[in-house]
Amino acid sequence: MAVNDRNSIFDNANFKALVRERTRFGVTLTIVMLVIYYGFILLVAFGKGFLATKIGGGVTTIGMIIGLAVILSVPPAGCETPAWMLRGPCCE
């Protein structure tokens, strides 16, 4: 691909809109995941008593449930990225 061909793509308004939307989506998803992960780490560091609280009569604690929720939050975020791209401005 020649340099002139790339310049015409980079100057295209639709391409610029796609890049802007992709960047906004990526930054938003990154912030959400960082809040989830670092929130859990801070909770482990400073809320050990809360996380050790047992639920019901068994061995399950609140920390186990929250930890499982953190782990299970990753696949939806990973699956949302290609799904968003298919719904995004590139497929109009």
User: Which range does the strand content fall in?
Assistant: under 5%
Distance between the termini: 25 Å
How many whole angstroms does the radius of gyration measure?
21 Å
Helix and strand succession? Answer: HHHHH
Q: Which spans have pLDDT < 50 for at least 5 consecutive residues?
A: none
The number of strands is 0
What would the principal axes of the Cα set say about the shape? elongated
What is the share of helical residues?
A: over 70%
Q: What kind of sheet is the major sheet?
A: none
How many structural domains does the protein architecture include? Answer: 1
Count of helix runs: 5
Structural class by secondary-structure content: mainly alpha
Mean pLDDT: 84
Describe this structure as you would to a colleague.
With 92 residues, the protein is an all-alpha fold. It has one domain (3-91). It is 77% helix and 0% strand. It has five helices and no strands. Helix 2 (13-46) packs antiparallel against helix 5. The chain is elongated. The model has no long low-confidence stretch (mean pLDDT 84).
